[in-house]
Amino acid sequence: MNQSDFWSTYGNRILESIGPHLFLTGVSLGLGILFAVPLGILLTRFPRWSGPVIAVVSVLQTIPSLAFFALALPFLGIGMQPALVVLFLYSLLPILRNTYVGVRAVDATLLDAARGQGMTDWEILYLVELPLVAPVIVTGIRLAAVYLVSWATLASLIGAGGLGDLIFAGLASYDANLLMAGAIPTAVLALLIGFVFGLVRRLVTPRGIRKEVQARWI
């Protein structure tokens, strides 16, 4: 099958499947950011809880994807809801870990200088810590996003739709073209999302740090 025939045959099905796939990825990632970033910051203020919390989230990450979706079925049924819950849980670790490690790594002398200028804790967070650790946080978000694009394909097994429908239909019917109709867009989406967040990471990197990194390569 040539490229023209491929798109005329599967183009509409690909376009119909990309929407739910992006919805699953985007909503679960958004929820993960809203939950994990504040939690990571909070754990830097209460470091005694960081070990247990990160350990629990790490355990969730080790559960095989198919098993996790299967465990969600008795409680949440089939469809989008259990898929979003599972993908949300999977998104937490990279974002939480990078936020926590990044904030903890901020130079203490900078914090002392900010306090010496009369800044409140909230001002230090928003004006000093977050701008410095934003690239690290975005790196965690980027990693989570790329993971979610691939994990979202498995959500089709519990009726959530997405590009996984094409992949598993191709596997079931031994149709290589149908399989590629799901696999190729999934791979392209992962690459595009990784590229976009790479640009975002560059944009949020403070100029001083960016110039320092560039100088090391000259």
UniProtKB/TrEMBL annotation:
The keyword Transport applies. GO terms for cellular component: plasma membrane. The chain crosses the membrane at residues 21-41, 53-76, 83-103, 148-172, 178-200. GO terms for biological process: glycine betaine transport; transmembrane transport. It holds the Pfam family BPD_transp_1. The keyword Plastid does not apply. This is Choline ABC transporter permease. InterPro entries: ABC_transp_perm/SBD, MetI-like, MetI-like_sf. The gene is opuCB_2. Its main location: membrane. Residues 18-197 form the ABC transmembrane type-1 domain. Belongs to the binding-protein-dependent transport system permease family. It comes from the Bacteria. It is a multi-pass membrane protein. It comes from Ktedonospora formicarum. Keywords: Membrane, Transmembrane, Transmembrane helix, Transport. It is found in: Cell membrane; Membrane.
